[in-house]
Amino acid sequence: MASFRILTHPEHGTRAVKIGWSWPAFFFGLFWALYKRMWLLAASLFGFIVLSSVFIPATMEGQLISNVLFLGLNLTISMKGNQWYASLLETQGYQEQAQVSARNPDDALAVHANSQKASAADIRDHEQAAHSQDQDLVGGQRDGRETERERKDGRHDGDDDENGDGGGDAGGKGGGNTSGTFIG
């Protein structure tokens, strides 16, 4: 599996950019740069092609030199192309959100979206639990039932008796007042 950088923009959405080697950049350098809208790189590659065809003689030695130069150029673009593309997106206002492992960019975006949903659900659950705990503390009185949080944490205070009147240590007097105050 490959690693991807997840970049988001408020207006243009989310993009996944592979970290490392790019096979499309290796095989289709100029066309890859045009597809990615990397205009300066595309112009540089085009200029290199034109200049090499003008200044390198059309002999066997010239062709060998030309092929070695193009191989070196394609290797460089393949190794650095995705990094340059991510940098270009960051200059356009994209911000890196995460790095994920996936098979392809679409899977990387799906993994990131699922992790964002899970994080949002965890935050929402935490806020709801804190809100219900705050209500218990502010209300001052409880109806004698365990809260969900107490069951999870094992903090049941045991103030329910067999009759369910919630009398606790008050001996059943007080008519269900569970705050611990004896009303005689």
Commentary on this structure:
This protein is mainly alpha-helical and 184 residues long. The chain has helices at residues 23-27, 29-35, 39-55, 60-91, 105-139, 148-153, and strands at 2-9, 13-18, 95-102. A 3-stranded antiparallel beta sheet has the order 2-1-3. Strand 1 (2-9) and strand 2 form a beta hairpin. The longest helix has 35 residues, at 105-139. The termini are far apart. The relative contact order is 0.13.
Fold blueprint:
Layout: E1 2-9, E2 13-18, H1 23-27, H2 29-35, H3 39-55, H4 60-91, E3 95-102, H5 105-139, H6 148-153
Antiparallel strand pairs: 1-2, 1-3
Helix pairs in contact: 2-3
Number of strands: 3
Approximate shape = elongated
- Sheet with the most strands? 3 strands, antiparallel
Q: Secondary-structure element order, as H and E? A: EEHHHHEHH
The structural class is: mainly alpha
Task: Enumerate the strands of the largest sheet in spatial order, edge to edge or round the barrel.
Answer: 2-1-3
Brief overview:
The protein is mostly helical and 184 residues long.
